[in-house]
Amino acid sequence: MDTLQAWNCWPLGVADIADVMALERMCFRTRWTREQFLLGLERGAFQILGTRERGALLGYVAYSLIAGEMEILNIATHPFHRRKGLATRLLGAAIDCCQRRGAGEGFLEVRRSNIPAIDLYRKFGFIEVGVRKNYYPDNHEDALLFRLDFLPLTSRADQPT
Ligand SMILES: CC(C)(COP(=O)(O)OP(=O)(O)OC[C@H]1O[C@@H](n2cnc3c(N)ncnc32)[C@H](O)[C@@H]1OP(=O)(O)O)[C@@H](O)C(=O)NCCC(=O)NCCS
């Protein structure tokens, strides 16, 4: 079975930007603009995977893959559909895709106060490797920098069933 099909996650493109922005409005104080999504997708600067139920977008993850390094840029799930494993599937799918394209490690930044996201990343084995003081312009909150060294695909226990 195709990797993404197994995770029930699919690549999103320009036609999906309105849905992603609607989800962002429910999930984030500061958001990307349509132009940022458009430019990023058109130039291949990042990829977005999404998961839908009966057509409705319930979650997405945006990531980049540059020189063997994956960076998680954003991940969010619909507030009414949390704690159901959606983010786990999205993050698992993004890591899978990057590993199959040769990535060996992943990075991300997260607000120090964002316990749900930090717990999610720790569950995947991400470890804290640094702090960017006063990183976020809206409230000067610190960003924690996390890193994951990918296990060989054959020994990963978090594959979809
Ligand atoms: C963070 C977020 C993506 C998690 O999505 P989700 O679909 O609820 O995540 P999952 O159901 O896959 O949960 C996986 C794990 O994450 C952790 N987690 C998720 N929500 C949590 C919460 N409210 N409190 C503590 N840990 C939480 C848990 O370890 C959970 O595993 P468990 O349910 O077995 O305990 C979601 O809360 C969200 O969209 N938040 C707003 C956007 C955001 O802050 N994104 C991160 C930007 S860095």
Please characterize this protein's 3D structure:
Strands 1-2-3-4-5-7-6 form a seven-stranded mixed beta sheet, with helices on both faces. The protein has helices spanning 3-7, 17-27, 34-42, 86-100, 115-123, and strands spanning 10-12, 47-53, 56-66, 69-77, 105-111, 127-132, 143-149. Helices cover 30% and strands 31% of the residues. The relative contact order is 0.15. The chain has five helices and seven strands, in the order αβααβββαβαββ. The chain has one domain: Aminopeptidase, CATH 3.40.630. β3 and β4 form a beta hairpin. The chain is of the alpha+beta class. The N and C termini lie close together (11 Å). The radius of gyration is 15 Å and the shape is globular. The structure holds coenzyme A (COA). Residues 27, 74-77, 82-88, 110, 114-117, 119-120, 123 line the site of coenzyme A (COA).
Topology, element by element:
Blueprint: H1 3-7, E1 10-12, H2 17-27, H3 34-42, E2 47-53, E3 56-66, E4 69-77, H4 86-100, E5 105-111, H5 115-123, E6 127-132, E7 143-149
Parallel strand pairs: 4-5
Antiparallel strand pairs: 1-2, 2-3, 3-4, 5-7, 6-7
Bound molecules: coenzyme A.
Task: Describe the structure in brief.
This protein is of the alpha+beta class. It has five helices and seven strands; from the N terminus they run H-E-H-H-E-E-E-H-E-H-E-E.
The largest β sheet comes out as: 7 strands, mixed
Termini separation comes to: 11 Å
CATH fold-level label = Aminopeptidase
**Helical stretch tally:** 5
Instruction: Tell the overall outline.
Output: globular
Average of per-residue pLDDT values: 94
Proportion of beta-strand residues: 25-35%
Q: In the CATH hierarchy, what is the architecture at level 2?
A: 3-Layer(aba) Sandwich
Q: Tell me the CATH superfamily.
A: Gcn5-related N-acetyltransferase (GNAT)
Total discrete domains? 1
Q: Report Rg.
A: 15 Å
Low-confidence stretches: none
What is the H/E string? HEHHEEEHEHEE
Family: Belongs to the acetyltransferase family. RimI subfamily.
Protein name: Ribosomal-protein-alanine N-acetyltransferase
Keywords: Acyltransferase, Cytoplasm, Transferase
InterPro entries: AcTrfase_RimI/Ard1, Acyl_CoA_acyltransferase, GNAT_dom, YpeA/RimI_acetyltransf
